[in-house]
């Protein structure tokens, strides 16, 4: 097998304006928006703008919304004995699969498992 004739991506060939064309190699910086003479696949006008864009990308990755709540977990309830479990899908006493109630946690005063839907339901009329 012979070697390829040229590089796979030749920026000098793909980003140079043909002679006599009105197409210019002027780009606008992705950070500050100023016009600059684009070289190759350049996106930024200076190394300072490149650094600012890198810091924006890094800070956005750190501020990402967590996929799970750190204190809440899924509460399951056994259909037979009506015992609630935090994060366990099978009742150890009845050996049945439990139904999902909602996310929630342990009550700080009585240590009973409370789902968010339990707290949001209106009180029954007296």
Can you offer a commentary on this structure?
The protein has helices spanning 11-14, 47-62, 116-120, and strands at residues 26-28, 35-37, 73-77, 84-86, 99-106, 113-115. The chain has 126 residues and is α+β, with helices and mostly antiparallel strands. It folds into two domains: 11-15 and 23-62; 73-120, no CATH class. A hairpin with a 6-residue loop joins strand 5 (99-106) and strand 6 (113-115). The model has no long low-confidence stretch (mean pLDDT 79).
Can you give me a brief rundown of this structure?
By secondary structure, this protein is of the alpha+beta class. The chain is built from three helices and six strands, in the order H-E-E-H-E-E-E-E-H.
Cα separation of the termini: 88 Å
Shape: elongated
Largest sheet properties = 4 strands, antiparallel
Mean pLDDT: 79
Q: Supply Rg.
A: 30 Å
Task: Kindly estimate the percentage of residues that lie in beta strands according to DSSP.
Answer: 15-25%
Strand order of the largest sheet: 4-3-5-6
């Amino acid at each position: 097998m012979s070697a390829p004739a040229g590089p796979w991506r030749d920026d000098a060939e793909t980003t140079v304006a043909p002679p006599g064309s009105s197409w210019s190699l002027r780009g606008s910086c992705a950070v500050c928006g100023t016009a600059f003479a684009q070289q190759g696949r350049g996106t930024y006008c200076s190394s300072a703008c490149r650094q600012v864009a890198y810091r924006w990308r890094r800070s956005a990755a750190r501020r990402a919304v967590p996929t799970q709540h750190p204190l809440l977990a899924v509460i399951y309830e056994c259909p037979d004995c009506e015992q609630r479990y935090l994060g366990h899908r099978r009742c150890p006493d009845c050996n049945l699969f439990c139904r999902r109630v909602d996310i929630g946690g342990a009550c700080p005063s009585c240590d009973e498992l409370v789902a968010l839907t339990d707290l949001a339901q209106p009180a029954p009329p007296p």
